[in-house]
């Protein structure tokens, strides 16, 4: 018997397991995949740590969270500065004075702001969808070249069908600053994310290759309290229907080059390129290896059995999740946490904040 059974070894489950052990309690983690770490998991090839499930850049303004992760692993000083490729034209992200100069030749913030404000006026009243929201924030030129087709590839839907809130945080800067995030702290674990995960799981028993929803009868009585981090609809055997997600497919290529694209993350913002972005992994850790690995990331419609990445938080799915949440609240010895169980996208620092808050309640 254990004090806690944790279903899932993503960041939520690993941080929680560490805190449970630190408080003198016992726990068992079971993990459906054949490895721990969830989507943070990295594969090492020729000294390069490949982000197997897409690029992850840790960033936070919460000093408590920053100090928390740094007790397990050193972080480097990587700054996320992606580049957008629109039909061979390259633009700096986030949208800043470098972007505006390339688009319009503007050299002062006043010129750029005047240009954007003039284009924003085509939207009247509260934006009703993502397209109107984007134009209301950055105008028509940036929307058409750098947002519209990229977003439609990413979500598999017209921007007119997507809710406005998806891009309410769209960063726009009237400075020559290519740092994508505004957060005070940012970086990549030196040696890759596996070092963070293994440090969190030091002394924790983990069973991999175990799907709780298949082997529930064998595990459900191993602890008086279960923390479930998998898809909430799967937990209830989809009895109310399937929640919708977007999924991702990856194609990784090896190149006999020191440097292939010159940046870790390049977004392809036009339909003429079928993938949404390419990731050159070595740049996350300033690698100097004689070879390089580049992953092309394709956004796909999710079907049961595939990995679920991004919840489709439209009205239909939000209402369905609320019904599942009502079922979850009736559980006596099961707590639901994390992006899949809560049908919400979380940044990594938000996951840690959430777990530390939960620990204060249950331990």
Report a brief summary of the structure.
This protein is of the alpha/beta class and 363 residues long.
Description of the structure:
The chain has 363 residues and is an alpha/beta fold. The chain has three domains: 4-79 and 185-243 and 311-362, NAD(P)-binding Rossmann-like Domain (Rossmann fold); 94-167, no CATH class; 246-301, no CATH class. The chain is built from eleven helices and 16 strands. It has helices at residues 11-22, 63-70, 97-104, 109-120, 130-155, 193-200, 216-219, 232-235, 315-328, 339-342, 348-362, and strands spanning 4-7, 27-31, 42-45, 48-51, 58-60, 83-86, 89-92, 185-187, 205-208, 225-228, 245-255, 265-268, 277-280, 292-301, 310-311, 334-336. The protein has a seven-stranded mixed sheet. Strand 12 (265-268) and strand 13 (277-280) form a beta hairpin. Helix 1 (11-22) runs parallel beside helix 11 (348-362) and helix 4 crosses helix 5. The chain starts with a strand and ends with a helix. Belongs to the UDP-galactopyranose/dTDP-fucopyranose mutase family. One of its GO terms (molecular function) is UDP-galactopyranose mutase activity. This is UDP-galactopyranose mutase. InterPro entries: UDP-GALP_mutase (IPR004379), UDP-GalPyranose_mutase_C (IPR015899).
């Amino acid at each position: 018997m254990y004090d806690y059974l944790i279903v899932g070894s993503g960041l939520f489950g690993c941080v929680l397991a560490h805190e449970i052990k630190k408080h003198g309690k016992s726990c068992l983690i079971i993990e459906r995949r054949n490895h721990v770490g969830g989507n943070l998991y990295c594969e090492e090839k020729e000294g390069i740590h490949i982000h197997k499930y897409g690029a992850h850049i840790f960033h936070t303004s919460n000093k408590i969270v920053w100090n928390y992760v740094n007790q397990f692993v050193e972080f480097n000083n990587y700054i996320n500065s992606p580049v957008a490729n629109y039909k061979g034209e390259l633009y700096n992200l986030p949208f800043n004075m470098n972007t505006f100069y390339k688009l319009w030749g503007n050299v002062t913030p006043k010129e750029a702001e005047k240009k954007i404000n003039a284009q924003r006026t085509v939207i009247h009243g509260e934006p009703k969808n993502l397209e109107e929201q984007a134009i209301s924030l950055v105008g028509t030129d940036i929307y058409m070249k750098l947002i519209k087709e990229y977003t439609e590839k990413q979500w598999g839907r017209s921007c007119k069908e997507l809710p406005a809130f998806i891009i309410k945080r769209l960063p726009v800067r009237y400075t020559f600053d290519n740092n994508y995030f505004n957060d005070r702290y940012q970086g990549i674990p030196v040696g890759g994310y596996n070092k963070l995960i293994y440090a969190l799981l030091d002394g924790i028993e983990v069973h991999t290759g175990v799907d709780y929803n298949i082997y529930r009868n064998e595990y459900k009585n191993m602890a008086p309290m279960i923390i479930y981090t998998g898809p909430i609809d799967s937990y209830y055997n989809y009895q109310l229907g399937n929640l919708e997600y977007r999924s991702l497919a990856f194609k990784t290529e090896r190149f006999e080059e020191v440097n292939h694209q010159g940046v870790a993350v390049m977004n392809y913002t036009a339909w003429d390129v079928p993938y949404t972005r390419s990731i050159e992994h070595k740049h996350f850790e300033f690698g100097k290896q004689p070879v390089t690995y580049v992953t092309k990331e394709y956004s796909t419609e999710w079907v049961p059995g595939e990995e679920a990445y991004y919840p489709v938080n439209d009205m239909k799915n939000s209402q369905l999740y609320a019904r599942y949440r009502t079922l979850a609240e009736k559980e006596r010895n099961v707590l639901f946490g994390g992006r899949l169980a809560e049908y919400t996208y979380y940044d990594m620092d938000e996951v840690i904040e959430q777990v530390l808050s939960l620990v204060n309640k249950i331990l």
